[in-house]
């Protein structure tokens, strides 16, 4: 059956430059980078920004949120589903793939308004030109679904052969993860899938191909299941394919495979068009609350939207109790694990723009208590020691050997898992902050208070005191700056620990005042009678790093006595380009050169602790010593710079953090481990820098206030934000800001 | 003036095989090794066992005890004095040196009874044979002095040219240390010296050459000051030189240079012969109290004496307040620094055989309080943190970068200085033990009690406690096994800390009971009212590692969970032969393979804590996991094996520890740093293994008891020992031991 009315204009990308990421011309070396840059995602899954003819070699992947598998002794990582959009066009036996075939033109576009991936490539073949256009989206309205339209146009009648279907060759780093794989066909719908080796979770991709013409033959080969279409395409009548596909993981018990297949079987071009509209409406609603409009350079507007979209697309589905991995849904690097990135860099965005998402981010950490408590026991502590790399139920996926020595090719013992104790506080404080921001007691009573108290309990058990001194210390830790391992009294860590214990005391006090029943329950269950005095005592005895005569706060005990070599000097000592800067003997380890914001991270988190003189002194001291070797660094330096009114460097950092996934120039290697992918923390940092920095949005006495520090390049900012039960609009100019209730107003793209 | 009666038979070595170390034939590659093996010393200085024609290239050296200098930024090291025994013989212009010239015979001998170094080499030159015989000793009766006789014999009359005198080219690792050097001659005596760059300490060598014939001409060349002797030597009348020399360092204010020169000028062959007799008598008196006679293999008897002599020769001079460096007086390696080797391995020998020496060993550590207190403050503690590598006044010479990475050639940050906190306790407990052994209250009141209390104070300040746990921990330390850095609760360290605090409490209690005046003084001065309760509390709260179900005591928290790879497996992972096994990423670091006795060191120090089942379980667990990569290891494994009655392995370890400097097969490299030299700790360990192990000598209720475990190869042992004011003789057979008072008896060599 063919669909004569299929014209392939269903998901055409927007022409509005403000809403487009685009690249023209084809660079072979950019294929993997563009897989990140042009990612599309819908919270359920991510589809890397590869071309339809790409496969495992080009890191094409349908990356699933929250599905993990460990094969053998390699590290656990998220599972990729079989890719249903693998389409290869041949002319005279030659594959039309710009990696193999001459082209005359190529463009790749991300339509940010509709989250549509578009590519258009014109191949010079024989004595004619063949143009392939493909547009795809992952359905926001119906997240297991995705759609592709694929059009072949010719300048002269040409015999075309297309193979389309599900690629059985799944890209995996530590795979294969799907075993006992099978393909099948049932009428128009075909499928391919298997189950994960570790948890026997069924992962299946279903697909249906609609075409407007041609001789179609079903295929089921070792590498692909789908269809071939042979046709002589004429200039007047392009070949159009429309592929509707769905993925299921066996978690969705309310959507069995048969139901998904029925839905796919029922689609027509018209109903797919309607589905696209629903997708766009869903996305528009997100943009409505999330967009930031600026008057300023178009590239800034585009970059800002790019980063906002990056967050919107990977937000966990409502009710999923999932969170956001450090590399989003861009693949298997970083083990698909959730880091503190979510809490420190992304949660503020969601609190302000999509507060419902925060409930899932929090729920993920509540479930994570299981793993965090186990981890604490494993290391000899009590309470909750949250994972550096969190997978299901808070399981810490971190290896004890996270870096490979480039000189010996041996794994290096690293301490990210054992010693980054600040994660617990990052989690607890994000929950406490969410409770305060949303004013929703359920956040506390549905598990949030327990997380906060258990994290505080962990710090009490980790803290040590000398018998001859009043203060307690947090010894042998790693702070945000990972180049310096096993340090004592990291400024950020100690401050986070103190705040966590204070939050625990405040949470318990709040519950006692407002929820007698729950309070009575937890008093017994958590042994608060013993615990609270320990909290009070520990909080009183924690030693914070304090500014020296020059106002500088030591990053940890002894940091300021380390060699004060410049970054260039330190870099010049590298013997190999991929050498690890940190660890016991790295070029930075015994110097003051740091990887990323650390004291400045503390300033960002606890700005009210410090006078602006101290803040400035530390920004000025640490910035020249910071390699910005993490995507978490630029935004915090930019944020603090903006808050200090140093708008020129702040703007510079804005451009850097906003461009990380656009340029793809971020660090791709740690030792010999590939760590590429998208950087949602940089996206969240971009938003924080714009909203908290340039617009200066903050809370004073439970009131939203904006004290703007706009860069000279920007004349205006307008955005919406949620706070304590109300929507506000914020309009910012150089002259000042207006924050006004906007519960019944509309702003943004759909004004 | 010539001395016709000079015949060169003054210091002829003993023919008794039991008292000789000898080597026949010449191996060029053994020259440096033999510099250690054939060392002679007299407490004031050491003379490496090189040949007279050797110079800096062959590491010839007169190594001074307790004189240090730092040049530039290289590490401080002991100073070598100009060598007065540099003698080169030429025939027809050719230098007679086995490295350059054919020989027909060569022998090198250490006469252990007289501590005389003998060499005899026959050179094939032209159509005749020329034999050089040289005997030298460092005067035990007059420690600044040394004497050499040098005889040239021929088969046919031969024209001989000899250059003798002080070698101005001093071998230094990080030198030159002597600046503004000058040579001079005053009548028959000539000299050469300069002053140290750092402390302006004058170091001078004076010499006088007596000859029996020939045409003598004074020389003063850039490389040497002395004399040339030209003569036709006949078979009937060998050429004989007798060189009397003295060294002064400007510390000996009672022996100015002029007085030394007068003494040298006054010498005749006869008075030198008399001085040799005095030297031998002094040495015989030492042997009288120190020798161990065995009935058993001659090689064991020789090896035992060799190790005893090694200790006797390097014992500090009475009143010098010096101690014994880890490489004795064999050169500049290990910075000439004093390690815990002295306290744990050598002090027991001196307590038993030469108790007066112990007063200087203790006095050295009393002076070291200055440095130990400074070091504690530097690292943020109170009390006394004794140096890992101690030079004058307890100054810690340890570099923060003690090993060079063989892959990158970069210095590696090591923690021997910062984290080996057990040294303080090793020092304190040795002093406490000396007080108990000698029953001499002056050891406490002349500074010993202060050292013990300050070391205990240090541990109290280092100990940390969690607020939710009763026990205190010693975190982030290095134990005896240096391959595992920055560990928590090292079993040995925690036990030493506890014993130190208990010794401090016992010392204070003893003084209160026996010395009211001193007690009153220190109560105020040391703030004992505040301190003693802290001592009591800390001692009660220290957590010791306890045996697991299998009886095994974990070397530190988490040790038993490390990879249980075999030593061979670990060794097979080496990529380069000189690679460091320890540090953060060494092949042993994340395994249970250890460098040296650690838990077994604890067993040796606190044997009474444990049942023999536990001792055996730990010996059997740790021995196969011990690389014995330190000269401190064999003896302790042997000692415990003997005490367990496992005499076969004990005997095996005896042979290994006793042979370390005889075979020269000990580790010569740490990374790329040369660490060769003699191993007095292995010598002390040999003695401990023989006396405390095989003879089973120990104290029970203030009584000396011997419960022997003789190896099957030995039938008898006889030795003397001092204990609490009395001399005892101990006679051991397989049937049992007799310990009897022997204050008026004589045993040993001069029976």
UniProtKB/TrEMBL annotation, chains A, B:
GO MF annotation list: carbohydrate binding; glycosyltransferase activity; hydrolase activity, hydrolyzing O-glycosyl compounds
Active-site residues from the entry: 482
Residue ranges occupied by any Glycoside hydrolase family 65 C-terminal domain in the UniProt entry: 698-745
Any matching Pfam family: Glyco_hydro_65C
Domain Glycoside hydrolase family 65 central catalytic: start-end pairs: 305-687
Residues in Glycoside hydrolase family 65 N-terminal domain copies: 23-250
Domain of life: Bacteria
Keywords: Glycosyltransferase, Hydrolase, Transferase
Annotated binding of substrate, by residue: 340-341, 595-596
GO biological process: carbohydrate metabolic process
Family: Belongs to the glycosyl hydrolase 65 family.
PANTHER family on file: GLYCOSYL HYDROLASE-RELATED, PROTEIN-GLUCOSYLGALACTOSYLHYDROXYLYSINE GLUCOSIDASE
Listed name of the protein: Glycoside hydrolase family 65 protein
Organism: Schleiferilactobacillus harbinensis
């Amino acid at each position: 059956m063919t669909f004569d009315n299929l014209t392939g204009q269903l998901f055409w990308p927007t022409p509005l430059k403000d809403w487009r990421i685009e690249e023209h011309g084809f660079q072979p070396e950019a294929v993997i980078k563009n897989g990140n840059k042009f990612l599309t995602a819908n919270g359920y899954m991510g589809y890397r920004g590869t071309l339809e003819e790409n496969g495992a070699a080009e890191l094409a992947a349908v990356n699933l949120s929250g599905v993990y598998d460990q094969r053998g002794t390699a590290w656990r990582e998220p599972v990729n589903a079989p890719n249903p959009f693998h389409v290869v066009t041949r002319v005279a036996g030659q594959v039309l793939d710009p990696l193999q075939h001459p082209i005359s033109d190529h463009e790749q576009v991300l339509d940010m308004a509709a989250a549509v991936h578009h590519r258009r490539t014109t191949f010079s073949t024989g004595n004619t030109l063949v143009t392939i256009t493909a547009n795809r989206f992952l359905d926001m309205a119906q997240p297991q679904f995705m759609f592709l339209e694929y059009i072949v146009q010719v300048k002269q009648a040409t015999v075309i052969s297309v193979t389309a279907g599900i690629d059985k060759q799944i890209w995996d780093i530590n795979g294969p993860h799907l075993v006992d794989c099978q393909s099948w066909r049932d009428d128009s719908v075909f499928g391919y899938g298997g189950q994960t080796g570790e948890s026997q979770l069924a992962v299946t991709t279903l697909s249906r191909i609609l075409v407007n013409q041609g001789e179609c033959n079903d295929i089921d080969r070792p590498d692909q299941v789908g269809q071939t279409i042979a046709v002589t395409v004429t200039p007047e009548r392009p070949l159009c394919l429309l592929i509707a596909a769905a993925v299921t993981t066996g978690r969705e018990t309310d959507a069995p495979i048969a139901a998904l297949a029925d839905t796919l079987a029922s689609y027509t071009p018209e109903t797919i068009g309607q589905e696209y509209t629903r997708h766009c409406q869903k996305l528009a609603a997100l943009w409505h609350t999330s967009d930031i409009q600026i008057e300023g350079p178009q590239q800034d507007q585009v970059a800002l939207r790019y980063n906002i979209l990056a967050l919107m697309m990977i937000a966990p589905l409502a009710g999923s109790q999932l969170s956001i991995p450090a590399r989003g849904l861009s693949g298997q690097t970083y083990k698909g694990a959730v880091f503190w990135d979510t809490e420190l860099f992304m949660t503020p965005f969601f609190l302000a723009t999509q507060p419902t998402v925060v409930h899932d981010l929090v729920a993920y950490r509540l479930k994570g208590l299981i793993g965090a408590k186990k981890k604490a026991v494993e290391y000899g502590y009590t309470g909750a020691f949250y994972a550096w790399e969190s997978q299901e139920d808070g399981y810490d996926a971190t290896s004890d050997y996270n870096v490979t020595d480039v000189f010996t090719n041996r794994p290096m013992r690293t301490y990210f898992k054992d010693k980054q104790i600040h994660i617990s506080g990052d989690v607890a404080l994000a929950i406490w902050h969410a409770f305060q921001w949303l004013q929703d007691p359920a956040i506390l009573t549905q598990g949030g208070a327990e997380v906060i108290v258990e994290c505080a309990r962990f710090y009490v058990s980790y803290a040590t005191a000398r018998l001859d001194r009043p203060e307690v210390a947090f010894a042998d830790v790693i702070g945000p700056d990972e180049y310096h391992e096993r340090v004592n009294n990291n400024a950020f860590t100690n401050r986070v620990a103190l705040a966590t214990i204070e939050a625990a005391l405040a949470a318990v006090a709040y519950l006692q005042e407002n929820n007698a029943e729950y309070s009575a329950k937890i008093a017994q269950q958590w042994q608060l009678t013993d615990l609270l005095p320990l909290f009070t005592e520990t909080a009183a005895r924690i030693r914070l790093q304090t500014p020296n005569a020059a106002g500088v706060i030591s990053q940890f005990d002894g940091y300021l006595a380390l060699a004060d070599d410049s970054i260039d000097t330190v870099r010049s000592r590298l013997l190999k380009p991929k050498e690890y800067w940190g660890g016991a003997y790295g070029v930075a380890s015994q110097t003051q050169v740091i990887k990323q914001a650390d004291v400045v991270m503390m300033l960002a988190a606890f700005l009210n602790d410090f006078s602006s003189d101290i803040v400035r002194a530390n920004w000025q001291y640490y910035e020249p010593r910071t390699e910005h070797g993490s995507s978490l660094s630029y935004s915090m330096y930019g944020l603090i710079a903006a808050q200090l009114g140093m708008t020129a460097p702040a703007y510079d950092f804005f451009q850097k953090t906003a461009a990380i996934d656009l340029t793809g120039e971020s660090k791709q290697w740690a030792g010999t481990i590939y760590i590429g992918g998208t950087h949602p923390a940089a996206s969240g940092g971009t938003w924080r820098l714009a909203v908290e920095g340039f617009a200066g949005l903050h809370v004073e006495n439970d009131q939203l206030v904006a004290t703007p520090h706009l860069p000279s390049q920007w004349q205006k900012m307008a955005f919406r934000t949620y706070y304590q039960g109300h929507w506000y609009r914020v309009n910012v100019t150089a002259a000042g800001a207006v924050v006004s209730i906007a519960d019944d107003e509309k702003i943004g793209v759909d004004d």
